[in-house]
Amino acid sequence: MIRCDLLIVGAGPAGLFATYYAGMRGLDVVLVDSLAHLGGQVAALYPEKLIYDIAGMPAVKGRDLISGLVEQARSAQPQIMLGEECATIDDQSDGSVVVTTSTGTEIGCGAVLITGGIGRFTPRPLPAVDAYTGDGIHRVVAPAEEYVGEDVVVVGGGDSAVDWANMLVDSANTVTLVHRRARFTAHESSVDELRTSGCRIITDAEILEITGAPSVRRVLVKAADQDGIETVPASIVIPALGHIASLGPLLDWGLTIKGRQIEVGTDMATGRSRVYAAGDITDYPGKVRLMVVGFGEAATAVNNIAVVLRPDEDLFPGHSSELPRMLATESRG
Ligand SMILES: Cc1cc2nc3c(=O)[nH]c(=O)nc-3n(C[C@H](O)[C@H](O)[C@H](O)COP(=O)(O)OP(=O)(O)OC[C@H]3O[C@@H](n4cnc5c(N)ncnc54)[C@H](O)[C@@H]3O)c2cc1C
After folding, report:
1. CA-wise closest residue to 169 among 116, 74, 222, 238
2. What are 267-310's pLDDT values in tens digits?
């Protein structure tokens, strides 16, 4: 069994900041995420977008925000487990908790902080993409420079699909957007931009097959208004059909859940002993679902957890500016 002071469930912005903060308070952390990468929604859904409402950063790219949060979190020397879902929770007689992951790993901890956001999220299925086993399918989009000279096919008609197509049209060799309906659900202004961008738009159409080995070479498209099947040259396919989100096993943890959120008090306690929550997943009167709010909640949760685990400590951690640099990390070796 892995042992730690604090298990953090979810490595999005709130979980990453909570990890750093727990290190600052001298807690040993295990950080688990069901995705294969750190950064939650920001890394998975909009790494290239600029974010304008992070305190002290007039504008920051999603990718850069996550890289700063990861660097900060790593200073707490957490044990990071990716591609594993926290599945079940059991109280122990000494007040501690054991959480078991989807692969059967047991994590014994003094407390759990759930920073699970919108829950585990998986890309909406697209049979032709799911059936293709070669390289060249980008579910998380890379920086625009990496698409120079590529023939890109973007699939979808929502904000993500249209934004990616607009973003890549200047760097890629060609960009083709395939959407199964005639109307787009993306913002009207983005669709207008797309229509004049030089991107080829095929609507009322579906992707039948992706071919090529070891990497994508072409996409077979059937448009409703055409008899035949069109072969579109492609080196990269970006399926941007959105995600399906679910709290999954967290629903069975005995928490008070309203819709997709966990009710918490002002100390971020869930009502279940030793289980706290922060970030998008929490709910209370007046809740605003933004990252800056999640960062504050993470700090509140960790400070309250620190006192539960070490009752002789103060709730107020002191000012970080007055602490020796990463005091907590240094003292743990
Ligand atoms: C397109 C877009 C643009 C946005 N722009 C902004 C913006 O400009 N400013 C802003 O403040 N916010 C913005 N947001 C919202 C912002 O991304 C979220 O508020 C933020 O990501 C929430 O962070 P979080 O850490 O609470 O959760 P998330 O980022 O959702 O991370 C939660 C993590 O928990 C994991 N997880 C869930 N359940 C489990 C489990 N049982 N076991 C293991 N892991 C689990 C998930 O895999 C996920 O990685 C935007 C969102 C989108 C989609």
Report:
1. 238
2. 999 999 999 999 999 999 999 999 999 999 999 999 999 999 99
